[in-house]
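Sequence design from tokenized structure. All designs in this work follow the same two-part layout: the structure record, then the generated sequence. An example of the structure record is given first.
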């Protein structure tokens, strides 16, 4: 009996180790798959024109150069476009957080049919493709005289990022013990004061993570900016990157890679900062106090 139990235990340990090894290998393969485009982008950004046209490309540039970066700034108004993207992304993130915080509080604390319907709508709205909403959205903004304006684009970004912001902040609100609000009510605090003085300080990590996520979404967005902004002076950075493509669809590869690398850096830095906070916001609602 003891030998049989020991054999089964040994077999179980070997099976567990093999499963973990397989998981780690799958994760490593996935990371390589994700990292390949960025590594190749960085390599291309520092290659001179002669290496870019080589029939035998290399991972590491043999003669690294900054000429692609200088050419990118000379050919396109990257700084102006980056400024437009920064204004749109920061404004959209701040407005979305201000609107989403009290709404998420209501969704998390109310258990009625309305809260369930709102939660369902938040989930369903994430499945809407951009093409489905662009025509009615364009007509609405045209009637409001917001076509070809940054404020029109900001309004679109706020509406588009609100569902995820609500879902994420609601998870943080559920993680706040209701006893704290009850204690505030006993002390005579109303709903608004409780939200501002008690709940909001505890939600600070979630608010920061949500704002940064909304910022990244707006910073990287291309389709709405392409359709709504026509004047070159008002175009955002993702749209300006398409100007490195020639009339025949031939890309000016070196400057394009350099500009794309610079445009990617803010998203990478911010996402590295908020990745754990995003995971915490998604799972916080499952924590039971």
């Amino acid at each position: 009996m003891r030998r049989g139990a020991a054999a089964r235990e040994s077999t179980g340990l070997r099976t567990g180790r093999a499963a973990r090894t397989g998981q780690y290998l799958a994760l490593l393969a996935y990371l390589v798959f994700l990292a390949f485009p960025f590594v190749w982008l960085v390599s291309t950004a520092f290659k001179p024109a002669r290496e870019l046209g080589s029939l035998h490309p290399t991972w590491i540039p043999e003669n690294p150069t900054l000429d692609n970066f200088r050419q990118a700034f000379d050919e396109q108004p990257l700084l102006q476009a980056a400024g437009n993207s920064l204004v749109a992304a920061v404004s959209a993130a701040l407005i979305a957080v201000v609107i989403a915080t009290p709404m998420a509080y209501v969704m998390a604390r109310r258990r009625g049919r309305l809260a369930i319907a709102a939660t369902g709508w938040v989930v369903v709205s994430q499945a809407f493709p951009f093409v489905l909403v662009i025509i009615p959205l364009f007509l609405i903004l045209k009637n409001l005289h917001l076509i070809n304006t940054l404020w029109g684009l900001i309004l679109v970004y706020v509406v588009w990022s609100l569902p995820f912001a609500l879902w994420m902040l609601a998870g943080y609100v559920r993680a706040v013990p209701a006893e704290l609000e009850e204690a505030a009510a006993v002390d005579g605090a109303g709903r608004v004061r409780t939200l501002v003085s008690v709940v909001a300080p505890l939600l600070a990590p979630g608010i920061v993570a949500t704002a940064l996520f909304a910022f990244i979404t707006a910073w990287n967005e291309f389709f709405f900016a392409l359709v709504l902004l026509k004047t070159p002076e008002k175009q955002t950075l993702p749209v300006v990157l398409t100007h490195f493509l020639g009339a025949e669809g031939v890309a000016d590869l070196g400057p394009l890679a350099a500009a794309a690398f610079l445009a990617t850096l803010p998203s990478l830095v911010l996402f590295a900062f908020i990745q754990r906070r995003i995971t915490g916001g998604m799972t916080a609602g499952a924590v039971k106090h």
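Residues 220 and 238 are 7 Å apart (CA to CA). We note this feature because it recurs in several other targets discussed in the main text.
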